[in-house]
Fold:
Amino acid sequence: MGWMAWTLPTTLFFAGIAALLVAMTVWQTVSPGRERKGFLPLTTSRGDRLFIGLLASAYGHLLVLALTDWPLWIATAICVAAMAIIMKWG
Amino acid sequence: MKTYNNKAWWLVLPVFVLVAFSAIIPMMTVVNYSVQDIFDPSTRYFVGTEWYREILADPRLHDSLVRQFIYSFCVLAIEVPLGIIVALSMPRRGLGVPVSLILLSLPLLVPWNVVGTIWQIIGREDIGLYGWILNSLGLDYNYASNPRDAWITVLVMDVWHWTSLVALLCYSGLRSIPDVYYQAARIDRASHWAVFRFIQLPKLKNVLLIAVMLRFMDSFMIYTEPFVLTGGGPGTATTFLSQTLTQMALGQFDLGRASAFSLIYFLIILLVTWVFYTAMTHNDNKE
Structure:
C-alpha cells in the first residue's frame, strides 16, 4: 500500500466515508427508508441526501479555502451542520 | 409492500471490483497525493490544504476553466441544434437510411489524434482545403498565429467529429415515435413547426438529455484534438483544463498540485453530471 502514499488525515477521511456507507447500509436494512420530498426541489432517498450532503460539503470546503482565511475546522463544522439539516429535512 | 430479492446485488460485485481497481483506488491515491509534496516515493511531506489554496487562487486555472466552459457551451450550442436538424432531414425509409447512417458514423470511427492531424492539414492555408478556401475568399485566416482562427478551427473540428453522435441519437429517438402521432397531426392540419414543437421535441427530450450529457462530459475533458491541432496555442488561447493539468502533472512533475487540480476538476464534472442525471430521472418519475 506504500505506493498509495497514505497519510493519517486521508486514512481517517476514507475510514469516515466507509463507516458512513456501512452505517447507511445497516440503517436501511434495519429500518428501510422511503423516497420523500423535503425542502430540496426533488424527491430523495436517504442515500441521495447523503450524496447531496457530501457533494455540498466538498464545495463548501473549497469555497472556504478559496474565499476566506478561516481555519478549515470552521468549514467542517458548517458542513456537518448542513449535512444534518439535509439528512433530516432535505 | 413489494419485497425485493437482495441476493441480486451479488451480481454487481464483479463490476464493483473492476471499478474499484480502475477508478476508486486511483482516486483515493490522488486524494492522498493532493495533501502532500512528493519528490519521490520515499520523500514526501504532508502539506495539508496548501495545494488547494494555491490552485484555487491560480490565474492559470481560472483562465482555462473559463475557456473550458465557453468551449463546452459553444459545442453544445452548435452540435445539439445541428444534430436535430440533421436527424430531421435524414430519410425514413429506403436505401438512403443505411447510406446516411454509415456516412454519419464515419467521423465517430476516426481516432482523436487522427482527427487533430486531419484538421491540422485541412486548416493549412497553402495545402489545406479549408484554410486555402478561406484565404482565397480574402479572409486572413491562420489558425497557428491567430487565437480567433484557432478557436474557430477547434470548434469546427469538434462539430465535424461529434455532431454525428447527436444526430444518430436524435434519429433513433425520432424513429421510435409511432406513426399515429403524425396521422393525428395531419388530421389537425398541424404545421411542420407544430409537429416538431409538440410531437417530436417532447419525444426527443430524454435522448437529447443523454446527448447533452455525453457531449458536455466529452467536451469538458477534451485533450487530444486541440493538443494535436494547436498545441494549446497560439499562446494559451486553446489550452483547456486537461492540457493545463497534464502540463502540471507530467511537464513539471508537480504531483501534489496536479492532484488537487484534478480533484477540483472531478468535482465540477461530478456536479454537472449529477444535475443532468437528476433532471433525466426526475423527468422519468414524472412520466
Summary: Residues 59-253 of chain B form a domain with the MetI-like fold fold (CATH 1.10.3720.10). Chain B has a mean pLDDT of 90. Residues 101 and 168 of chain B are 8 Å apart (CA to CA).
